[in-house]
Amino acid sequence: MRRSLLLVAALLSLSALVYWLVWGRGVEQTDDYDYAAAFESLDPGSTAPLFRIADVAGKAEADVAAVLGPPTGCESSLHSRRCRYTPGATEIVYIDGKADWLTVTALGEAPLDDALLQRIGLKAAKAASASDEERVWSALSGLREVRAYGTPERAQFLRIKVKS
């Protein structure tokens, strides 16, 4: 029994030594992925439109793909289809085959203000309802509702309802 305990202690000590030699002395593990290149085209301070909502809202999936590129993934349910796109980390729910609910989560460093609409190709407009955490616009360019959430310093995401 005593030999077993000594053997376990020796193995644990050896494991700890190997861990320290590999990780504990600041040896950095690297991989082949170029993180800088992956994000070099992102300008978090940009206010340029990610896309024009008029080119996407109420459109069929093929028409949206012509504007935003092919979806990165989709799931279908009984009454809708949900697809994700790269520009603006946009998620679109297609209802009756048309882009109806949109969520845009990559808005850069844009503040939560009336100019936020420019990120989806609309003109800045006074919100019907505004607080420090939310802004709501109604009846903009044929859209049922646009809601923005975040803090005064940075918008977190936009939720856009086209028809339903």
Total beta strands: 8
Taking the alpha carbons of the first and last residues, their distance comes to 72 Å
Largest sheet: 8 strands, antiparallel
Radius of gyration of CA atoms, rounded to a whole number: 24 Å
The number of distinct helices, counting runs of at least 4 residues, comes to 3
Strand order of the largest sheet: 1-2-3-4-8-7-6-5
The computed structural class is alpha+beta
Low-confidence stretches: 37-42
Could you state the order of secondary-structure elements as H and E? Answer: HHHEEEEEEEE
Principal-axes geometry comes out as elongated
Strand content: 25-35%
User: What is the mean pLDDT?
Assistant: 84
Bin the helical content.
10-25%
Textual characterization of the structure:
With 164 residues, this protein is of the alpha+beta class. It starts with a helix and ends with a strand. The protein has a domain at 48-161. It is built from 3 helices and 8 strands; from the N terminus they run αααββββββββ. It has helices at residues 2-24, 35-39, 61-68; strands at 73-76, 80-85, 90-95, 98-104, 129-130, 134-140, 143-150, 155-161. The chain has an 8-stranded antiparallel beta sheet, covered by helices on one side.
Brief overview:
With about 160 residues, the chain is α+β, with helices and mostly antiparallel strands. It contains 3 helices and 8 strands; from the N terminus they run H-H-H-E-E-E-E-E-E-E-E.
